[in-house]
TrEMBL record:
Residues spanning the membrane: 9-31, 174-195
UniProt cross-references to Gene3D superfamilies, sorted A to Z: 1.10.287.130, Histidine kinase-like ATPase, C-terminal domain
Entry-linked SMART domains: HATPase_c, HisKA
Catalytic reaction equation(s): ATP + protein L-histidine = ADP + protein N-phospho-L-histidine
Protein name as catalogued: histidine kinase
Enzyme class: transferase
PANTHER family associated with the record: SENSOR HISTIDINE KINASE YKOH, SENSOR PROTEIN QSEC
Main localisation: membrane
Domain Histidine kinase stretches: 252-463
């Protein structure tokens, strides 16, 4: 089952590590304790054997008594919890039965044994330590040969006794840790809750955002969460810009389409009320003209909308003369024939541009040059290659009365009051401005003293 809560993942992970650490500590403590007790009890077995040898030397007469038995009290063991003082009885201790002693002569005769050791040898007559199976239990034994007495002394201890003590010692270490585990887990829970609470605050802030509420987040977050806030703020900024563009597009479209649609409706009414063929023809021509203007307006609005959401372009080396020819082919013939054209562009001149968009730039600029030029005048187009850019100049003769409002050229829907009779929507230069910004092109407008309107484009040879 996949866990989808970060807080739960952290709690399970941290607590799991703590429990694993305690388990490893417990196992390590048990084996370390067992090893230390083994060394201690092994030393005691050797010490017991030497003590028996010393006693035999002190009382050599005891060696001659055959099969002497050392009584061992039989104290019943139970699982009841008792204190150390309670385990010390008048008869002795219950663990006495887990320690055994035997003394054998070299010829195989048993001289001395504890009551819990049988009449048979517990271990081989070989000096050193032995692991033996005796009386259905595993024992650790030690054999010592006393050459001066010509006897073998065996001491042994049950293995389960050692295991039991190892468990007790290990538990003595682990029980305090287990008791401390509860406050540790509570502290872990508190730390995780406190640490992830800021994520919850962040999610609450995000849930409060919407199309009408795209404010930047400004939370005091840990260093690890700051990149998330930065990324979210970047996304919110892009969304806000997108919403603004959409609202502006809707406002512009509704504003600009209202008048053409009203005019179209008027001509439609005139057509339905026409009483003569001439009136019908005039209304029909007016409808065609209005429809054409409306189509042009919608086309330009869609071009602007497309450019608003265009972030990355594909720049390729493009022959300028080819783009120029394609742009002029899209200009209406009535404007194209209104002026003479003087094109001075080298066929080898290339630009690093997005061909379709740059063609749109030239089409709009050349279309305006033909529309607003004095009838029969010359429109000049030339290109000069410089070290870091290519300068394209478009010149046409216009009437300077009234004076052109150069700073406002490129504003959406801006048209000079004196040019309202010329077809257009005021969007062409707005499209041009957007495209040249994407290309990092420098665009300037100016009017010379001899009524010549000059447009200059400086197209960089490479983009930074």
């Amino acid at each position: 089952m996949r866990i989808r809560s970060l807080r739960r993942i952290l709690l399970l992970s941290i607590n799991g590590v703590i429990l694993l650490f305690m388990l490893i500590t417990g196992v390590s403590t048990f084996y370390s304790t067992h090893h230390e007790l083994d060394e201690l009890f092994d030393a005691q077995l050797a010490q017991y054997a030497r003590l028996v040898r010393h006693l035999l030397l002190e009382k050599p007469s005891g060696v001659t008594d055959p099969n002497t038995i050392i009584e061992v009290p039989r104290i019943m063991e139970d699982d009841a919890q008792t204190t150390t003082a309670q385990e010390r009885t008048l008869e002795g201790h219950k663990y006495e039965s887990k320690i055994a002693v035997q003394v054998w002569r070299q010829d195989g005769k048993l001289l001395l044994r504890s009551a819990n050791a049988g009449p048979l040898p517990m271990q081989p007559m070989e000096a050193g330590y032995h692991v033996i199976k005796y009386d259905d239990h595993e024992w650790i034994g030690f054999s010592l040969f006393a050459a001066d007495l010509d006897v073998w002394i065996f001491t042994a201890q049950r293995e389960d006794f050692r295991d039991e003590l190892s468990v007790h010692v290990a538990l003595d270490h682990l029980i305090p840790l287990c008791i401390a585990l509860i406050p540790i887990l509570m502290l872990v829970w508190f730390a995780v809750y406190w640490g992830t609470n800021l994520i919850k605050v962040l999610s609450i802030k995000l849930s409060q955002t919407g199309p009408n509420n795209l404010k930047q987040l400004d939370l005091k977050l840990p260093r690890e969460l700051e990149p998330f806030q930065h990324a979210i703020n970047s996304l919110l900024a892009e969304l806000k810009e997108y919403v603004i563009k959409e609202k502006r597009f809707i406002a512009d479209a509704s504003h600009e389409l209202r008048t053409p649609l009203s005019i179209l409706q008027l001509h439609t009414d005139n057509l339905s009320e026409a009483k003569s063929p001439a009136d019908m023809l005039n209304a029909n021509l007016a409808i065609q003209k209005s429809t054409k203007r409306l189509s042009h307006l919608v086309f330009q609005l869609m071009e602007i909308q497309k450019l608003e959401h265009l972030d990355q372009l594909r720049f390729l080396p493009t022959v300028l003369l080819n783009v120029l020819s394609d742009a002029m082919a899209q200009i209406e013939s009535k404007y194209l024939d209104n002026v003479s054209w003087d094109i001075q562009v080298d066929s080898a001149t290339k630009l690093l541009v997005e061909a379709a968009l740059f063609q749109c730039v030239l089409r709009n600029l050349l279309d305006n040059a033909a529309k607003y030029a004095q009838k029969g005048s010359v429109v000049k187009v030339n290109a000069e290659e410089e070290l870091t850019f290519c300068k394209i100049t478009i010149r046409n003769f216009i009437s300077t009365e009234p004076t052109p409002d150069l700073p406002r050229l490129g504003e959406r829907f801006f048209r000079h009051a004196a040019n309202q009779d010329i077809e257009g929507s005021g969007l062409g230069l707005s499209i041009v401005r957007k495209i040249i910004d994407l290309h990092q092109i420098e665009l300037t407008y100016r009017v010379s003293n001899n009524e010549e309107f000059i447009v200059e484009l400086k197209v960089p040879n490479n983009l930074s």
